[in-house]
Amino acid sequence: MHLIPLSKDANVNHLLLFILVTMTQSPESLSVFPGEKVTIRCTASSSLRSYYVSWYQQKPGQAPKLLIYDDTDHASGVPARFSGSRSGTVYTLSITNDAADYYCLAEGCLHLSGTACELGEWVWEGRRD
Fold first, then answer.
1. Which of 17, 20, 61, 81 has the most crowded CB, counting CB atoms within 10 A?
2. pLDDT category, 106, cuts 50, 70, 90?
3. Is residue 64 domain-resident?
């Protein structure tokens, strides 16, 4: 972790904080029978209270589609057969009946000055499932 002053002015106390977080998705691939529930996990290399994960689905020839944001919230129009959960540094997407590529996106916000978001960090990881 590195703390770097954003200003040499003694009256400015904002700091820029760099934190390296790696997301590891598992399993890399899997085959299931139609109607069977699938669970995909993304594990963060370290814990940061203000990290949230979004899950995206991508089908061939299409742009990624947001399914889940803030760990567990459904994007507009996303059916209940998709669900997200979190336990510590492990983020989980559960799916029924939908073959595609799935990606997790870790998004962090550090609140160093009131409620303003001082830093956002994004880490992508994805596999064909």
1. 17
2. confident
3. yes
Distance, in Å, from the CA atom of 42 to the CA atom of 97, rounded to the nearest integer, reads 20
Q: How many domains, in total, are found in the chain? A: 1
pTM of the model: 0.69
Q: Return the number of other C-beta atoms located less than 10 Å from residue 68's C-beta.
A: 26
| Residue 33, domain CATH | 2.60.40.10
- CA–CA separation, 107 and 114 (whole Å): 19
Say if residues 42 and 24 touch (Cβ distance below 8 Å). yes
| Contact present, 82 and 93 (Cβ < 8 Å) | yes
Record the tokens describing residue 7, joined without a space.
Answer: 């200003």
